[in-house]
Specification:
Blueprint: H1 17-87, H2 91-111, E1 114-116, E2 128-134, E3 144-149, E4 152-154, E5 157-160, E6 162-167, H3 178-201
Parallel strand pairs: 2-6
Antiparallel strand pairs: 1-4, 3-6, 4-5
Helix pairs in contact: 1-2
Length: about 200
């Protein structure tokens, strides 16, 4: 007689639907967080790349500007040499050679974006440096009378302001106010009276 009970097979418990939904939601949350971190890292890297490129460009521009300033001094000397050569006896060949070298130098500078600052205008403190002021009846107030040294921009940025002489009207001396004179006279009289009283008290 087989009274022994056959062993029952263990039935694997299926996961609850709520637990599955919770697990899926957690995975979605982690995935969103990872995606957000990736986007932030990508944005930071892009900003770093742009910043590094801008700093590199500024460094190049500063180095170029220093070199251009030195070349501008050379251009000034060329202009002076041409002026002296015009007044010398052998002005022909020397002046022509200097002129050719000067034009070649200016072509090189223009290739680097260098342009001359205009001085046939009114004073612009951002582009002109005032050396002195004169009262010129033929000029308007703050109008540039003469350019002492040429100024230049490079790619729109001033690298050397133009040194200029500007017109400045001299204001006529204002006449003394009669009321002020009368007041000063009265003040002086009061002071004298006070002095006399002090002497009488002594």
């Amino acid at each position: 007689m087989n009274d022994e009970l056959e062993p029952q097979e263990e039935v694997a418990s299926e996961p609850d639907a709520t637990d599955q939904a919770r697990e899926i939601e957690e995975l979605k949350r982690k995935n969103d967080e990872s995606l957000e971190k990736l986007k932030r890292l990508q944005a930071e890297f892009e900003n770093y790349r742009k910043r590094a490129a801008k700093e590199r460009e500024e460094t190049i521009q500063l180095a170029t500007a220093r070199l251009v300033k030195e070349l501008l001094l050379l251009a000034d000397n060329f202009e002076r040499a041409q002026a002296i050569s015009k007044n010398s006896n052998n002005a022909g060949s020397d002046s022509q050679g200097l002129k050719m070298m000067y034009y070649q130098l200016m072509d090189i500078l223009r290739g680097e974006g260098v342009t001359e600052i205009g001085t046939n205008c009114r004073l612009d403190p951002f582009q002109h440096e005032v050396m002195t002021k004169v009262d010129d009846p033929n000029r308007e107030e703050d109008e540039i009378v003469e350019c002492v040294q040429k100024g230049y921009r490079m790619k729109g940025r001033v690298i050397r302001p133009a040194r200029v002489i500007v017109c400045k009207r001299e204001k006529p001396a204002e006449p003394a106010n009669e009321n002020d004179n009368h007041k000063n006279h009265d003040d002086g009289h009061e002071c004298r009276e006070e002095n006399e009283e002090d002497e009488n008290q002594r």
